[in-house]
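Structural prep section.
Before we set up the soaks we want a predicted structure of the protein with iron/sulfur cluster in place, mainly to decide which crystallisation condition to try first. Input record follows.
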Amino acid sequence: MANGMFIKVEVDAVAAKDAAVTKKLTEVCPVNIFAPKDDGSLRIIDENLDECTLCDLCVQAFPGKVKVVKLYE
Ligand code: SF4
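Run finished without errors. Recording the tokens verbatim:
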């Protein structure tokens, strides 16, 4: 698969602008897929997506706002 990416993370557009959401996601993800932008909104680090362990912590932190979508199968 192109550049090895096998999942994508979808975050609710309003939640992704919330600095508190960004902070929490940055804390919970063990492989640094989330980071804050300069304005505190959420940045998803595409280069780290293939490190995702499917641990589900980001989804559990914000049920219904964060989705981890598998791109295979
Ligand atoms: S499932 Fe786990 S590893 Fe994957 S993005 Fe969410 S917190 Fe990070």
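Observations: The domain at 2-70 is CATH 3.30.70.20 (Alpha-Beta Plaits).
Flagged for discussion at group meeting.
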